[in-house]
Amino acid sequence: MSTGASSGDAMDVILAQWARERPDLDCSPMGVIGRISQLQREVFLAQRSTFAKHGLDAPSFDVLAALRRAGEPYQLTPTALMRTALVTSGAITQRLDRLEEKGLITRGRSEADGRAVVVTLTEAGRSALDAALPDHLDTEHALLAGLSDTDREQLAELLRRFLVALGRVPSAEQVGG
């Protein structure tokens, strides 16, 4: 894969067309947003294929990964999972229903607060996640193979700044506060 600055992509063609047709407009944001959209599709397709090999999908993987990252006893409240996944309560309920049907999680009352519901990663859920994670990382490494380590670090920093500027910062719960 060529990494030279002279190699163009489909967005370069689109931007040139807009420059010709509407030279009065600054279409440069399309160069960033359009490429992010294209990358989003590439990442989605690659991850979908990887997760399918393990009987999972991206939403299921996200829930299992959040529980696994929580550490023993691998429990979180549905609200904490909802905040981690950035989805509605209805969406997280659907995800939990599917995972519970597969035996990958359980839902029960918190030992600390009998009124609170906690979601717990089962041994089967942990095994499924631990089996999928190396393949998931291999997929991500393959997606980034055309970039040097320095390029990856720079891209990660630029994307971090972009997300922070949009207000996407972790809540106190997510950082352990």
UniProtKB/TrEMBL annotation:
PROSITE patterns: HTH_MARR_2
One MF term in the entry's GO annotations: DNA-binding transcription factor activity
Coiled coil: none
SMART domains reported in the protein's UniProt record: HTH_MARR
Keywords per UniProt: DNA-binding, Transcription, Transcription regulation
Limits of the HTH marR-type domain: 29-164
SUPFAM superfamilies, sorted: Winged helix' DNA-binding domain
InterPro entries per UniProt: HTH_MarR-typ (IPR000835), WH-like_DNA-bd_sf (IPR036388), WH_DNA-bd_sf (IPR036390)
Name listed for the protein in its UniProt record: DNA-binding transcriptional regulator, MarR family
